[in-house]
Design a protein that fits this description.
- The complex is a heterodimer of chains A (441) and B (311).
- Chain A is mostly helical and 441 residues long.
- Chain A has 2 domains: 1-225, no CATH class; 271-441, no CATH class.
- Chain A has helices spanning 3-12, 15-35, 40-73, 77-81, 87-97, 100-121, 123-151, 155-159, 165-182, 196-222, 231-244, 252-274, 279-291, 294-300, 304-319, 322-326, 329-335, 339-357, 365-386, 390-396, 406-440, and strands at 186-189, 192-195.
- In chain A, helix 2 packs antiparallel against helix 3, helix 15 packs antiparallel against helix 18 (339-357) and helix 18 (339-357) runs parallel beside helix 21 (406-440).
- Chain B has a 6-stranded mixed beta sheet with strand order 6-7-8-3-9-10, with helices on both faces.
- The chains are: A mainly alpha (441), B alpha/beta (311).
- The interface between A and B is large, with 33 and 43 residues.
């Protein structure tokens, strides 16, 4: 048996828990059945689903979150990082081991929901239950992946209980979307109509697979199995394909390119603010470059440059399809800026962020960088707008719904200045570091 | 067993290891000493493959740690200064998990647990929950987890910190035992007197640089150079001249009853010298190797090395 899974079973199961849990659940179901004998089939189906959600989704999320944070808090993480287990064995050992008790209780709820759901709704109830299971796996795996990703550099977040709470946010989104979709008979996706329940199951399974894959990749890095960053941009493309399917415009290729651009932009920001961006990262890359070790260079490359490049690629592809621009008002309104302008704005923000995180002898560089980004992107244009300084607002944020292409030139200047500042500071810091080392020796 | 070349490691705004090059001999017990912030823990974590250095290479038994960290882990056990245990598992379960997660075949896991428990005097505690163990027992269990797969190298960061004198003595005896079964140990500690009991080599770090890395005299049975102290029960005026004429002995100090000299030769030559002393009618009451005092050596090396200059 997988040692990590076995260890978790030792920790979460006691004979008392094994016996008491089914008895308690049986009592709850029996009391509900006796309370309303007329509609007890539907009542039991509904209650079992709700109990599954609370036990496996919420309680399980807490346990999955703890599977990483407890190791770090209790100083057992080094032992795990040095063990011989393969990343996949460690991943599923934690994913299903840490949540084994919740799955045990959840399985009882599923059996009850399956029996009474079948009686009430037939096969659609089974589809519905499978969707609940896939979402449970999705949020558990996501919690593990996020904590592993964060633990590389942000020990405070882990000490404060991890970032599993983010899973609650994802749950909220899933809940809102699925509640809306269930109101429909079918969902239109890429021009085809799918039954809503089946489409939800497809989405749940797709993203559960992505989350498990992401947890495995993060675990690989933690266990020193080095990887090159191809999965992050690939996920951006998968997400773009999924999301573009919902935009009901005529030019499907243009819709895909612009949606992919938006997704790549969002994922670049997320990677940028959740990864280390200090001088050490650049020193390591420079060292690998000097050694001509390009695989090592790729292994040490942060994730954000991959989606930044992807954003430019999709911006250019979208720019070649100008007829799509005219024929896609929903996306046009989204930007008010041509696709290339959006990519240039992203480049500017990345350079501004890096410029501040590379500041010498500065404390709280991350929060400073984030603050300046908010000032440049939102506060200054807003102040210029309310002061009636429209030209200044246009120079700061060249959004023009009538003629979005005009802003590209201004954004090019913004990006050029920011890129120049970033290069200047990076060269200066690397040179100072190199001189310091020479003196030290 | 461990070869490190030009190892450099940076923390943000601080160089923890600066162009460190050293070797650790197979079968040795190396005392890793140095003040706080010298880079001891960082060096150990780099050797264990838990941190990636900026540059340089680390070979453990010929395998590059940076290239194949997981292969090196098979050869290595590591006990960090702030180690943790699974508090709710029993001693037996902790050892079983360590053995299985280190890839031992299931057929040998039971024997490995029993052997390790016996070595660490935990055989009667296998059913006890680890959270209820004493500090010394917890330390031994953590070492047990690190050695259960029979590593060739054991890295121990401040293993005796917080232990009472009896537990420290037990630990010293365990380390001597591990050395006799062929394990190479690298042990860091602030308590030099404690390292004195079992160390064969000293590796001294300061400000991320190696001050000194050498064998301690009198610590290695096969070493060709060691200090010997000789005592006579009856004063003999010939003693200084007799020893002074021996090419293998370099006299440090001598009078009619006592002498101290550095002896160059193997154990057979040392035994021959003793026989010749007795044959020459010296009334020898004591003829013993003087183990070098680690604390004195360390303080001496610190005082002779210049402070690195920063700009």
């Amino acid at each position: 048996m997988n040692p990590e899974f076995k260890r978790n079973l030792w920790l979460v199961f006691t004979p008392q828990r094994l016996i008491v849990t089914p008895i308690l659940l049986a009592l709850v179901f029996a009391s509900v059945a006796m309370f309303n004998k007329i509609d007890f089939v539907n009542n039991l189906y509904g209650l079992a689903r709700i109990m599954f959600v609370f036990i496996v989704w919420f309680w399980g999320l807490r346990s999955a979150n703890s599977s990483i944070t407890n190791e770090l808090r209790d100083k057992t993480w080094d032992q795990q990082r040095m063990c011989a287990l393969q990343p996949w064995a460690m991943t599923w050992g934690k994913l299903f081991g840490a949540t084994a008790f919740e799955w045990y209780a959840g399985l009882i709820c599923l059996i009850v929901a399956g029996i009474f759901g079948w009686m009430a709704q037939g096969s659609s109830a089974i589809v519905n239950l499978l969707t609940l299971v896939s979402i449970a796996i999705l949020i558990h795996a996501l919690s593990i992946a996020l904590n592993l990703h964060t633990s590389q550099f942000e020990s405070r977040a882990i000490q404060q209980g991890g970032v599993g709470w983010f899973g609650l946010f994802i749950l909220f989104i899933i809940w809102s979307v699925s509640a809306k979709w269930f109101a429909f008979e079918s969902i239109d996706w890429w021009g085809m109509a799918f039954p809503a329940a089946y489409f939800l199951l497809f989405g749940g399974l797709l993203f559960a697979c992505c989350a498990v894959f992401s947890a495995w990749r993060s675990m690989s890095n933690a266990l020193q199995v080095r990887t090159i960053p191809w999965a992050w941009p690939l996920f951006a493309i998968v997400l773009a394909v999924y999301m573009a399917g919902f935009v009901s415009d005529t030019n499907s290729l243009y819709v895909f390119f612009t949606t992919a651009l938006l997704v790549a932009v969002a994922m670049t920001y997320i990677a940028l603010i959740t990864e280390p961006t200090g001088l050490l990262v650049w020193q390591r890359l420079k060292r690998r470059q000097e050694l001509g070790d390009w695989r090592g260079w790729l292994e040490r490359l942060p994730l954000w440059p991959t989606t930044l490049l992807l954003a430019f690629a999709f911006a250019l592809l979208a720019s070649f399809n100008l007829t799509g621009w005219i024929g896609t008002p929903s996306l046009n309104l989204f930007f008010g800026l041509a696709p290339l302008g959006v990519a240039l704005m992203l480049l500017r923000d990345v350079c501004v962020f890096l410029f501040f995180t590379l500041a010498p002898n500065a404390k709280r560089t991350f929060s400073s960088a984030l603050f300046y980004l908010i000032v440049i992107d939102l506060l200054l244009p807003f102040l210029a707008q309310i002061a009636g300084l429209n030209y200044l607002r246009y120079l700061l944020l060249p959004v023009d719904l009538m003629n979005p292409w005009n802003g590209v030139f201004i954004m090019l200047i913004h990006a050029g200045i920011a890129f120049g500042l970033f290069c200047w500071r990076l060269r200066l810091r690397l040179r100072l570091r190199s001189e310091l080392n020479t003196n030290f020796s | 067993m461990i070869e490190i070349s030009n190892l450099t490691f940076d923390y943000p705004g601080h160089r923890a290891l600066d162009d460190v090059s050293l070797t650790v001999q197979s079968g040795s017990v190396t005392a890793l000493v140095g003040p706080n912030g010298a880079g001891k823990t960082t060096l150990m974590r780099c050797i264990a493959g838990l941190e990636t250095p900026l540059s340089g290479s680390i070979l453990v038994n010929g395998i590059d740690v940076n290239e194949k960290p997981r292969e090196v882990h098979r050869l290595m056990g590591y006990l960090s200064d702030f180690f943790g245990l699974y508090q709710d598992l029993t001693v037996g379960q902790c050892l079983e998990y360590a053995a299985e997660s280190q890839g031992l075949p299931s057929t040998v896991v039971h024997d490995a647990i029993m052997l390790t428990a016996r070595q660490l005097e935990l055989s009667d505690r296998l059913q006890q929950v680890s959270g209820s163990l004493s500090r010394g027992q917890r330390q031994r269990l953590a070492i047990g987890q690190a050695i259960i797969h029979g590593p060739k190298v054991l890295l121990l960061d401040e293993p005796a910190s917080g232990l009472d004198p009896e537990a420290r003595a037990n630990l010293a005896s365990l380390f001597r035992h591990l050395q006799t079964i062929g394990m190479t140990l690298l042990v860091s500690s602030h308590i030099l007197a404690e390292l004195d009991e079992y160390s064969t080599h000293i590796l001294s770090l300061r400000n991320g640089r190696v001050l000194e890395n050498r064998a301690l005299s009198g610590s290695y049975p096969a070493i060709s150079h060691r200090r010997i102290r000789l005592k006579l029960s009856l004063a003999d005026l010939r003693l200084a001249d007799w020893l002074g004429n021996r090419p293998e002995a370099i006299l440090i100090k001598a009078d009619e009853k006592d002498a101290e000299f550095d002896f160059h030769g193997d154990l057979t030559a040392q035994s021959k010298l003793l026989r010749e002393l007795i044959a020459a009618s010296f009334q020898v009451t004591s003829f013993s190797e003087q183990k070098e005092n680690l604390q004195q050596s360390y303080l001496q090396s610190v005082s002779t090395m210049p402070e690195p200059k920063y700009s």
